């Protein structure tokens, strides 16, 4: 669907490029995770895809057509839902949807149909007459998403769509976003929450310093060549086992251990049982996304 070939971009006066030869193939019909630390180039790439910036070099095609030509042929093909609230706080939910639908050039019949669909999708029925400034954080995020869907885009760019929402609203948004490919909308999803990306993205790209560090199917990226065990126990890991397996604490009673071979696992489990440590959860031979991210970027996601 979207082909990004050797795309570079440098801001005026900057010593280094924000994007340095980025190349990605994003297939239709899924949720694609785009990850990177602050300053990695994610926002710049999203801005170029949304038409807010132009690449310095390289080529981007959408369904085989140059991006500019594809956008000219169908201005609604790509929609951006930014991290900041992109609506007028003094207008009601319905007034905001009607205004942005008008900006898209929807006919009266289309506008009515699409507003109804967007309200139903985001479950905003109970607040359509409320000014946006009176909505909770979760409802504001849902209004942001509803506005982005008015034009039934082929490609939806979501930049941190769950920032500042409560857990219930986050689950609703994630479930809703995960269902978008079934309606014909492909999603590029950026987030600082690793668990969100693991939950809804089939493919992921990790970028830093304007370059792609890793890209591919999430399951393949998280598969470990080395023997890695993630454990959750009902008691503290004994110090001798922690030292032997180079344990790293991952939270209360949660540990990440290394095995020299697969044959070490039964021995480890026997040693844990002897020490009175019951295993609550066990994962073998698989990283989580945060571990992969930290290993590739050598820094915290929130730096």
UniProtKB/TrEMBL annotation:
> Which Pfam families does the protein's record reference?
ABC_tran
Q: Coiled-coil annotation: which residues? A: none
Domain ABC transporter intervals: 2-234
Recorded hits in InterPro entries, A to Z, give: AAA+_ATPase, ABC_transporter-like_ATP-bd, P-loop_NTPase
Gene Ontology molecular function terms on file: ATP binding
Q: Which UniProt keywords apply?
A: ATP-binding, Cell membrane, Membrane, Nucleotide-binding
* Membrane-spanning parts: none
Which protein, by its recorded name, is this?
A: ABC transporter ATP-binding protein
Top-level taxonomy: Bacteria, Pseudomonadati, Pseudomonadota, Betaproteobacteria, Rhodocyclales
